[in-house]
């Protein structure tokens, strides 16, 4: 009875606020498909974890902040068998920008953006029945009350509901914790090897000390009448006003990102399947420890196995797909085994190569004639006495025409037949340099030179394989940046502003599409730490550096006020103090960008100046200097102006109204011309 009372209370609370507000909309609005529809046209690299899925397609409705986050729906769709509808909203905490006074005037000129239109889009979608709903970093509370009611009604009747980025509602739907089958969510998700969950700050935010504690902190599961509700929490949010993620945490791009992202979406897929019991797998992998497997390379077995639980009486013929890849997503081993699962526990013996030192991921996908029955992964850490301890160049940056100096330090002295194989690959995956550096027996380091004149892109991947005989013992990767200082022969097609979550892996994918669209430079404010410029360079975009913004207003006294350098009282642009501080501001701002080779330097956009200025001490002095440059003599000025100034120093710039009263029309003209000259100089 208590559970029913709580559910009914939620329904009553939702129904009490049912309302819709119509707004007048202008004719001739822009097509809004790009803000309201999610397409699957663009295919990106992915692992088909469960596509097709033996238990059938899921029918899912996503509510998601627009801009970058909807792409994650497609990324999940590429990996999980589902039919989906999506309703993009303004951002995580706002249904429509019509409610944002600053943005409404722009947003409402696009079809499908008003509260009324968004409400209609969502309610039309909710005329269908779904297996599950996903609030993808979107607040449930910003939805129209009728939509909230319809979603919760379907959930109460057995549909699933998944929240990402925490409990994004104040409604009382988390009253009945549920643990049944909860272990299925993290089964086969290699948390121990995902870089994001090795970050001490993330572990601190989740209040855990090591990876094995993560499942208890990252997921909450509840019953809501006949339905299930799951909540994923990552220990870090993702702002969605200008960009941001919807399903997974905003992981910065690195060479590890592609593999890690596969596993983050594997987690989301498993959480979604948990909310729909009718789609639960009938096969379970039971020997993939969350803490990973630690092996010694010297004692690696060439065979291993996985344990599979199957609970039906009828034997199930399957193919077991086994893949091992390293942290940078290079496949090292692939095997397909045919077997038949019997009721109960099954042991499937699989091969394993002699892996190099470092981190690896082992993936197992079990497929029947209907599709994927189960999938899972495990992190494998291989230890070795002989490893690459340090590797890289003296600097991450090398100017064209110079030689990058590199060095490699080994953990122990090299045995015989040890070779370091080094390569440079550009942004478009073209290898333009290979070198083999022998390391003599007993030596523990090697130096090498890398000529970079063949580099065609700003960024190159520097890769090393440490080999003993024919075996690769260890490998390492770094980036090397070779800026293009001379862009004079390149026609610039400039994108203003970049991508909202540009430093993440999704941003990296987005920048590849920006490249394909024809842009070859990005205008943006420089970052203090160079992180943004690094991401641009990894996609071969030089920065058009927004170095300064010229904003010359005026106060009530007519003193120029620079709105960028606010601590100079007399803001006349000719004031040496202002000029010095402006120069320092520019140099400080561009410092981190310089190594990456900005294509151009911009002095800003929407710059302005106020004609009602020039009356400060430096303004008056500069006005007189301006007059001296434009009149050969004081006598000539007096003749033209109809005045009798005895000395240049006697000329005081008057407010325009006072000058009019004295019929000093030339002064009014020269005042305006001086303001323009001051701004231009």
In brief:
This protein is an alpha/beta fold and 681 residues long. The protein is built from 17 helices and 28 strands.
Structural features, described:
With 681 residues, the chain is α/β, with parallel strands linked by helices. It has five domains: 2-14 and 48-279, 3-Layer(aba) Sandwich (Rossmann fold), CATH 3.40.50; 283-383, Immunoglobulin-like; 388-481, Sandwich (Immunoglobulin-like); 494-609, no CATH class; 617-680, no CATH class. The chain has a six-stranded mixed sheet with strand order 2-1-3-4-6-5, sandwiched between helices. Strands 8-14-13-10-11 form a five-stranded mixed sheet, with helices on one face.
List keywords for this structure.
5 domains, Immunoglobulin-like, Rossmann fold, disordered N terminus, 6-stranded mixed beta sheet, 5-stranded mixed beta sheet, alpha/beta, 17 helices, single chain, 681 residues
Shape: flat
Structurally, the number of domains stands at: 5
User: What's the mean pLDDT score?
Assistant: 92
Tell me the CATH architecture of the largest domain. Answer: 3-Layer(aba) Sandwich
Give the neighbour order of strands across the main sheet. Answer: 2-1-3-4-6-5
Poorly predicted ranges: 1-7, 9-23
What's the tally of helices? 17
Q: Please report the first level of CATH classification, the CATH class of the largest domain.
A: Alpha Beta
- Radius of gyration from the alpha-carbon trace, in angstroms: 32 Å
CATH topology name of the largest domain, in short, is Rossmann fold
* Class by SSE composition: alpha/beta
Strand content: 25-35%
Q: What's the N-to-C terminus distance?
A: 79 Å
Q: How many strands?
A: 28
